[in-house]
């Protein structure tokens, strides 16, 4: 994104709210998906744009991503003798 916006979090009842600039193209009542990242950052998008977000990630991988496969993943033996529908 070429433009950066600043916003302030404020209290609204027992919740926190974030006032977003109108220029972002959001409208009252839009359903938003918010993804928290391990580094403390967040991403958000309109719920109906989920496929566009997913397809946008496709180009984010480097050309050699997983070119050598996933590698060996060690897995222990499983006990299949338990009762059906009951977790081990």
From TrEMBL:
Residues 69-80 have a biased composition (Basic and acidic residues). Residues 69-88 are annotated as: Disordered. SUPFAM superfamilies: AbrB/MazE/MraZ-like. It comes from the Bacteria. This is Antitoxin VapB. InterPro entries: SpoVT-AbrB_sf.
């Amino acid at each position: 994104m070429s433009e950066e916006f600043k916003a302030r979090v404020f209290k609204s009842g027992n919740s926190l709210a974030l006032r977003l600039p109108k220029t972002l193209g959001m409208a009252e009542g839009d359903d938003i998906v918010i993804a928290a990242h391990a580094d403390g950052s967040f991403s958000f998008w309109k719920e109906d744009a989920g496929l566009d977000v997913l397809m946008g990630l496709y180009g984010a991988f480097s050309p050699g991503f997983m070119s050598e496969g996933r590698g060996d993943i060690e897995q222990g033996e499983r006990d299949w003798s338990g009762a059906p529908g009951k977790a081990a």
